[in-house]
Amino acid sequence: MENIYLLMIVALAVLAVADLVVGVSNDAVNFLNSAIGSKAISFKSIMIIASLGIFIGAVFSSGMMEVARKGIFDPGQFYFEEIMIVFMAVMITDILLLDFFNTLGLPTSTTVSIVFELLGAAVVMSLIKIGANETETWADLGKYINTAKATEIILGILLSVVIAFTVGAVVQWLSRLVFTFHYEKRIKNFGALFGGVALTAIGYFIFMKGLKGTPYYGDFKEVVEGNELYFIGGSFIFWTLFSFLFMKLFKKSILIMVIAIGTFGLALAFSGNDLVNFIGVPMAAFHSYEAWLASGESASTFSMDVLSEKVPAEPFLLFIAGGVMVLTLWFSKKARSVAETEIGLSRQGEGHEKFQPNMLSRVVVKGTSRVAQGLNYVLPKATTKNINSRFEKPVVELPKHRTYELPAFDMIRASINLVVAGVLISIATSMKLPLSTTYVTFMVAMGTSLADRAWGRESAVYRVAGVLNVIGGWFFTAFSAFVAAGTLAYLIFLGKGVAIAILLMLAVLLLVRNYLSYKKKSNAIMDETGLKKTESNTVQGIIQESADNIAKVIHRSNKIYSDMLRGLAKQDTSKLKKSKKGVKKLNDEIDELRDNIFYFIKDLDEKSVRGSNFYIIILGYLQDVAQSLEFISKASYKHVNNNHKALRFNQIKDLQEIDQSLQDLFTDIESIFQNREIEKIENVLDKKQELFEFVSEKIEKQIARTRTEESSPKNTALYFSLLLETKDLITALMNLMEEYYISYKKA
């Protein structure tokens, strides 16, 4: 029996490494976003600074490990056998849950995950014990669960959402009133003071308050306590002088240094606060195993009072954990996708919106707009005008459609994000509260973006929907963590070693599946057949770049149309569903190009304005092509999915003949645009009447069949719809060819 617990310890060690990987992939967003979004320093420098912060924070984080040992439940009420079931259920659930969110590219809270997993598994194990005890009832659950501490942790986490958003918004609003968006000149005059305040806050809360979370605090306690004001005053003088000299000697903004040190401090605070979420449970299990072996008692009778004692973490294990976290930071692609979500939601300018608006986001935006209008009526006009002038954004010459070259927000906002988040997280760490770093950093970023008026009329409904989706995901995290960990604990209790083996195998399979799914999704994003925004500002350049997009649309349309007809002939819903997804993706890409028209026109030179008319018309015809394909795909899928009668042999044969004719047409058009053989378009246009007559002939044949042969009404309606929409598809293609040919001749 001893061997099974040794194997469980080994499994927990492996799970700890895996949890570090998936956990850091999700939480890297917390300390990287401000530096990445502002582009104040190079990406490589950001990674080096963050790596140092993570490693140092990990090595000095052992004081937080007590949360996993006794923060949620009373270990003295459980036996070794039971505590190992709890720990195993928690770790398997944690890995699967975090990896699920990483695959979606959504930031979630590793702290909330571990807290609710411990709570769920401990509650279920407590109920099992209560059920086996004739003298205990549900009312005795309180003696097993540390309700006071658990409530304190949960309320602290929820309260942090409101506090982080409010503090971030207020501090950013005040900072913007002082510095405005044209902050370069004011930073030269007041940068030393700003640097002194910001770096003092970071230095004090990260390095001094954060020191309370380590086992080494006792060595400094007498020096630190009672002398806080002297330390703050000395730090302010030092950092103000440092800021002044930095700007004078290097001729650079002190904001760069604030962002660099803030990133280091936030990474350090993250590591010190969140390492418990990844390795706290396995380390507690290891200490339990050591105590049980030394006792010589049975696993089912050995009480876990030992976990109530303070046991420092092994420095060697913390060193290894820090190394794994640093490697994950450098090599995890999922960390980048999670970071993109928060940067996109806090971005100052326009761009692609990841989230779609919903009813709640529309209600919130309309409600806040009315409140803002009401305040404008109440406040004196002079005051409103003065405040608005502080939020006037600079005009950037770089075209908006090249937003990937622009920072998502400026260095003032990045500095405030780091300072406010670092201070809040470090205060929680000093109080040994496992505060959610994700909640704090995300809500601070959202608060500062709101204060910066980044959520304008054009983007507010999308951004609010994104924030609501993320927050909804947090509640889903808490609920699913509690239920899943409790369920796994019960299954392990019933199945013991067999259940553990099955669950571990299932976890590995799900991780592999998520990895393959994410890889496939990443490859799809990098697909060379994707449409590209036109960046040329001359007519000739627009015509040439449009040729690439036309070739890609024709290539994809050819495949989609053929696949739809094959799926319809074989009654294959999976192939039809795949075609529907392909059409939707194509439609979305064309819509994105149309959304970019405003910036495209603004970027044109005076001599090339007529190129905008050509570009708009071409996009219109491409959209007509996509809409025809969309109609055909939806009608075909609906027919097969509703289990209506299959098309008759003659109908399928006619559709295959049409498909062959269209394949030849698509192939010719694609070749013309790929090879820039534009003169050959005239040959394609000559086939227009022939194709129309060919489709019309099939329509007449079906009319004759309908009158003489037995057929289904649904079947006939679908067939006519396909033929008529195919005719519209040919019309859109020919209009596209004609417009391109005429414009090419004029250019």
Account of the 3D structure:
The protein is an all-alpha fold and 747 residues long. The protein has 2 domains: 7-393 and 406-524, no CATH class; 539-746, Methane Monooxygenase Hydroxylase, Chain G, domain 1 (Up-down Bundle), CATH 1.20.58. The chain has 26 helices and no strands. The chain has helices at 2-38, 43-59, 66-71, 80-104, 110-132, 141-144, 147-179, 184-209, 217-224, 228-250, 254-295, 315-331, 333-346, 359-378, 381-390, 411-430, 437-451, 460-525, 539-570, 573-595, 597-603, 610-641, 649-674, 681-685, 688-708, 713-746. Helix 14 packs antiparallel against helix 18 and helix 16 (411-430) runs antiparallel to helix 17. It is globular, with a radius of gyration of 31 Å.
By secondary-structure content and strand pairing, the structural class works out as mainly alpha
Sheet with most strands: none
Q: Mean pLDDT, rounded to whole units? A: 79
Specify the number of helices.
26
Total domain count:
2
Unreliable stretches (pLDDT < 50, length at least 5) are: 398-404
C-alpha end-to-end distance: 84 Å
Instruction: Report the count of strand segments.
Output: 0
How much helicity do the residues have? over 70%
Spell out the helices and strands N to C: HHHHHHHHHHHHHHHHHHHHHHHHHH
- Please give the radius of gyration in angstroms: 31 Å
Strand content: under 5%
What characteristic shape results from the CA principal axes?
globular
InterPro entries: Phos_transporter (IPR001204)
Keywords: Membrane, Phosphate transport, Transmembrane, Transmembrane helix, Transport
Main location: membrane
GO molecular function: phosphate transmembrane transporter activity
